[in-house]
Structure formats: C-alpha cells, structure tokens
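Hi all, long-time lurker, first post. I run a small reading group and we've been trying to get comfortable going from sequence to structure in the token notation. Rather than ask abstract questions, I figured I'd post a concrete chain and ask someone more experienced to write out its structure so we can walk through it together at our next meeting. Sequence below, copied exactly:
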Amino acid sequence: MNTENNGEFVRKVSLVEQIALQLRKEILTLVFPPDSEFPSEKSLSLRFGTSHMTVRGALKILSQEGFIEIAHGKRNIVKDFKGSVGIDILPELLVAGPDGIVPPEGFAIFEKHVFWLYDQILLSAAEKAEPEDKPELRKRVRLFTKAEGLDQIWNTQIDLVREMLRISDNIVLMMYFNSYVKTHQKLLTLGMIKSTVYPVPDYQKTLYKVIDAICANDKEAVRKIIEQIRPIAKQDIQLWYKNN
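-- Answer (accepted) --
Happy to help. Here is the structure in token form:
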C-alpha cells in the first residue's frame, strides 16, 4: 500500500482510514473520474492485502463522505465529489489531497468561517448571560490559559466555548461548533496540528475582560475585544495549513 505521506499520521490512524485516505486521493486526482466504475470490495481486498471487512469499512467512509455510491450486487460508481462532499473532509484533503486542491486562498475561506463562528458564539452569549454566570466562565478561562500540551489546551478551550453555548442556548451555533470540533479532532488525529501559540502571556486578563463584557450584556465591548484577540487566533489556525 502506498504510504507516501508523512509517517506520523499513518501511525495514528487505523488501516481502514489509511485505505480511505489513499482511495480518496485517487478519486480527487481523477484516477477514478466521476461516473466511472469504482473497484469492487474483492479487488480492493486483493490490492491492499487485507480483509473484505477492512475494505468494506473504507468504502463506507467514502460513501458517507459523498465520493462513491455503493450498489450492493451491482457496480460501485464514483460520484462527482464537487457536488457531494462537505467541509468535514477538509483535514483529509490537507493531509492526503493532491497538491493545490486546497490552496492558501481556499483555506482562508475556512479560516474566516471559524472566526465568524467564534464571534457569533461570544455575541450570542452576551445576549443572555447573567452576572452569576461569571464565576464559572472565569474558572474555565483559568483552566484554558494554564493548560499545557495540545490535547489539554484544546479540551479546556472546548469546555470554555461550550459553557458560552450553554448560556446562549443557540442550537444552530451548537451544531456548527460540533462540526468544527470534529474537524479539529481529525486534524489532531492525522497529525496536521503539531503546535499551538497557546498559552499566550497575559491572555487570561484579556479573556477576563471579554467575560466581564459578556456578563454585562455589552455586545459592543465584546466586539472590540474580539478584534484584539483575532490576531492570536489567526496565528494559531494558520499553523494547521503551514504544518502540511
């Protein structure tokens, strides 16, 4: 099996995912163009020297992502991925996609979407927060700013944002955030995220200010602080693309 990508992610993902990564790349590079017949489970088992069950798992992933259409008892067909895949496969494209499929300007679109999401979460929380919400939010800020290591930093950040989502009780923002969390977790699993700018000196004070503004329902103050912390967030998220 071809494992020409960096060996770090190969050690972290399962054989099913490795096979899906390779086949996904071949679809993206038009080895298997849209509307063409995709190899059968049997032929792929022989090619990769693995069980039918393992290959079946890889095919299921590609089907769920919108790359192929599985027709039991008939031929599997390649779908036009441009009209079927979602942003949830971005990590795989960054790791195993052909060169240039996600250019810097394309990644910038995703970056802007992430910033929009965080802005809306903060502003939505500012609409409903009460003064009694402040102690719990400040506690979660302390845990985040004192965290060490990628996993701990990420998990404490999630906890902080989820507390804001609990306050805002906005189900649509919760859904958006859950999708973003899954994307970020994939990037971690695939070895795309290897470093972070956090912890940042004196960042706790800045986050305390935004918590104070949220609990005072001062959306204008929240917007101003967002502009202050945006360069830090931008620097961190750009590490994802630079690490590729």
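A couple of things your group might point at:
Residues 7-86 form a domain with the Arc Repressor Mutant, subunit A fold (CATH 1.10.10.10).
The chain has eleven helices and three strands.
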